[in-house]
Predict the 3D structure of the following.
Amino acid sequence: MSVLILAEHDGQHLNPSVNHAVTAAQSWGLPVHLLVAGNDTAEVAKTAAQLAGVARVIRADAAHLEHPLAEDLANIVAALGRDYRVILAAHGAFGRNVLPRAAALLDVAMVSDAVEIVSDNTYVRPIYAGSVYATVQNGDAIQVVTVRSSRFRAVGLGGNAEITTVEAPAAFGKSRWLSRTHQHSDRPALGSARIVVSGGRSLGSAEKFDALLTPLAEKLDAALGATRAAVDAGYAPNDIQVGQTGVVVAPDLYIAVGVSGAVQHTYGMKDSKIVVAINQDPDAPIFQVADYGLVADLFDAVPKLTAAIH
Amino acid sequence: MNEGFTMKILVAVKRVVDYNIQVRIKPDGSDVDIAGVKMSINPFDENAVEEALRLKERGIAKEIVAVSLGTPASQDVLRHALAMGVDRALLVETDGELQPLGVAKLLKALVEREQPDIVLLGKQAIDDDAGQTGQMLAALLGVGQGTFISGLSVEGDEAIVTREIDGGTEQIAVRLPAVLTADLRLNDPRFVKLPNLMMAKKKPIETLSAAELSTDTAPRLKLVKVSEPPARKPGIKVNSVQELVAKLQEEGMLS
């Protein structure tokens, strides 16, 4: 028996979350296989085969997998999955879309967003926006799980896995991919950035959000993030929302500007290595998770900070 | 497949601990203690109800049925959905523990009974944060899925959805019948007016027992214990930007 990882990629590159998923997959002490499904995946599969700790890369190539849909991916995973002890993916929008569908096809339960793998069927996962940790035991024969990337280190290169191919099932045919909109391509990706500069509602407007935070983010080569309150107020687009309903990040440095620190937000950032909070309210809950707190007027402190960084 | 004005929508709503409540852990660590706390409709499910109502107001849907699963206490979230404007409410009664796969199986049985063109649910519930039920239901029904949606239109026999994905959005077309799961960005749910809530209290709620739907809902996951998440080490307050920059340099963060 082995562990199967559903690998996210964009046709050219593996998503960095896959490196973390491999570490999580090694918890079982079983061979780790990586499924790369797409159209013309030869290059991606080659890279995947070099990941340390991967025993086999399984390619599933088909024209209809150019922009893979959940229905088709779940069918491949379910077809392969009966021979596996564990089916695993990173807990991003990609894995969250596909794995529950595959689990239901296999008539097994799924554990979402595991932050720790305690034993071969027991996991720790956050519930109630991360304000509580639950330890759950999955009684099913096939363990289906998504893992929080930031809790598992990224494996490096040095592997030399065999590459095999499987025939993809026929297209499900009830869904069509139309288009994709990528934003902020000039900034590091939020999910994997080393530094994140994040803004809350105290910034007051979309113009001020941009004027205050973008120069700081540029100086630090950081990704921009936002709270749900800032997104709802229209200061920032939804895809940079950090928190329970948005992206979970764990950068080396997280700078929270004008962020109050609701649990729904801290859910998405409290695994960051260093947290800096700048807020005018000394009682803001964000200071409870901050390593360095500065009580100050944002519109005075942030430009000074930007100017002080070389 | 129903066309245009005859389209039927099933919306699943879950009763959860209110968004603003900080839950406590039982002293023995066996579970969270939610006795007596304020309960509400799961916020994402409220977005699902709102979207169904908008499809009806745009002349696309004819009938909206809200369903909840659980004890009779779940009637309150169905009343909330009725007050928002859904046409019918259905409670599948059970006092057993329900997990996503079991919920998906019960909903599948209901879909076979009600034959909706669209099933709308929230993308996740804010209590267990699993985010699985919609995808599982779509799999069991053998239909397409549009998850984490922030935009929806219906064209011919397809739902055209905008999905929130990492780093942007994606547009896909899903042939009906289909299962769609709502992100918070899909809409702003309407405010429920008191007279509507009073009227909703008088409306009937059809009740079925989970056993009648004869499906296997036995829990697969066992809760071993709950605990406080690890606390971050206490931080310090700095007094100036200069001090902050010095600390970050010490940490090697600015190199």
